[in-house]
Design brief:
The protein is of the alpha/beta class. The protein has 13 helices and 14 strands. The longest helix is centred in the middle third of the chain and has 32 residues. The chain is globular. It binds pyridoxal-5'-phosphate. The site of pyridoxal-5'-phosphate has 14 residues, from helix 3 and helix 4.
Length: 409
């Protein structure tokens, strides 16, 4: 045990492990500074489209081995356009995991279709392949698959099943650009792949998204829908210019994140009360490396004297660590009239209550910061009863009484 673990947790008045708090994203980058300088000089910042958008489209297409790339203003819009590109509307059903990004559920409603929720895998908390077939009906027009929190959905098996039933698949790779799934770049296995360039994402232009497909019909339908005498959901030329240099460093950054995740999980060990989702991916081949927009864990309160997940997150936030509760499960926050479910969704319900996610920027920093995160967890574990007592008697430092809403998009 190193000495740091014996120190008093920040929530009880000790010095935080990271006194400056979590690193801000995006990091300073000379390539980005140069793009911004040049954009100012050339007037590129005011352009609708141009060579940068074209270059970005070409590079994304080559990287994902798809024919068509449509750039747009957000990942959320990209999913909606993908649904429209498939011609999905009233009376249709779209299958998705009950634990997923809320915008995906809302998009299905937006186009007039009905979300059909299936449960998630008990190990990696992503869509459970074994429950997919029983959710399919004559009205199923699409399967929407997201890879979340370091988890991967086995795309080969999903595509095999979907092709047999002639159901198109949208693969939401917003959280894992450049990740590999069974030998393929994430987002390239589905009939449509989706990326987000939102401000907190691994590839960022502050906002933005992309739709990738090899179907000219789908691409054409999306272009027709989006064009209102002008593009209604554009990515700007400046945003495209900012993304191009990031594609060059994505691979090395993904590698660095992977190394840090591997090291962090080693340091945490298997008695930390945190079980990572990425160690249990049910992919069929070894050529898979997840992405880490948020590193997800199942939290076990019994390792922490019964501390609630929310209080545990507050404790780590007090240490300067960006750890938050995961998504709400979709069936717990939406009226039953809005969706159909094929079973009781017990695993998604558990995920709703016990997932925690570590925001990615720290994963691009030095190894010793992983040691600090692991020691912060140990510190909370060692003082869990005391924290519990302080909490129940209302004596926690007032700064930490109420967990603020730090949710990311
Ligand atoms: C961020 C995200 C989106 C939406 O992207 P925005 O660009 O923020 O609209 C969609 N799906 C998943 C899984 C995401 O993480």
């Amino acid at each position: 045990m190193n000495s740091a673990t014996q120190e008093i947790p920040a929530i009880l008045g000790g010095t935080p492990c990271f006194p400056k708090g979590p690193p801000e994203w995006p990091f300073a980058d000379s390539a980005i500074s140069q793009v911004l300088r040049e954009a100012q000089e050339t007037g590129l910042w005011g352009k609708y489209h141009g060579p940068c958008s074209q270059q970005l489209q070409q590079e994304l297409a080559a990287f994902h081995e798809t024919e068509e790339v449509i750039l747009c203003c957000s990942g959320t819009v990209a999913i909606e356009l993908a649904l429209r590109g498939l011609g999905i509307g009233t009376g249709d059903e779209v299958i998705l995991a009950a634990y997923d990004f809320e915008g995906n559920f809302k998009n299905i409603l937006t186009v007039g279709a009905t979300p059909v929720l299936v449960d998630v895998d008990s190990q990696n908390c992503n869509l459970d392949l074994n429950l997919l077939e029983q959710a399919i009906t004559a009205s199923t027009k699409c399967i929407l698959v997201s890879h979340l929190h370091g988890g991967l959905v086995p795309m080969q098996a999903v595509m095999e099943l979907a092709r047999k039933r002639e159901i198109p698949v949208i693969e939401d790779a917003c959280q894992i650009p450049g990740a590999k799934i069974e030998g393929h770049t994430a987002g390239s296995s589905g009939d449509i792949g989706i990326l987000s360039f939102g401000g907190s994402k691994l590839l960022t232009a502050g906002r933005g998204g992309a739709i990738m497909t090899s179907s000219p019909q789908i691409a054409q339908r999306i272009r027709l829908y989006s064009f209102r005498g002008n593009e209604a959901y554009p990515l700007t030329e400046l945003q495209a210019a900012l993304l191009i240099p990031q594609l060059k460093t994505l691979h090395s950054q993904n590698q660095k994140r992977q190394e840090n995740v591997t090291y962090l999980l080693q340091q945490l060990g298997d008695q930390s009360g945190l079980t990572s989702l990425c160690q249990a991916n049910p992919t069929s081949e070894t050529d898979s490396t997840p992405g880490y927009y948020k590193l997800g864990f199942q939290y076990s309160s019994e390792y922490f004297a019964g501390l609630s997940r929310e209080l545990f997150c507050t404790c780590l936030q007090a240490e300067g660590i960006a750890l938050y509760p995961g998504f709400r499960a979709l069936h717990t926050i939406h009226s039953r009239r809005r969706f159909r479910q094929t079973d009781a969704l017990p695993v998604a319900t558990a995920c709703d209550q016990n997932l925690v996610v570590l925001h990615h920027p720290v994963l691009l920093t030095e190894h010793n910061n992983m040691d600090l995160i692991a020691s912060a967890v140990t510190r909370i574990q060692q003082h869990a009863e005391e924290i519990m007592q302080m909490s129940t008697s209302g004596k926690l430092d007032s700064r930490y009484k109420k967990s603020e809403d730090h949710s990311f998009e």
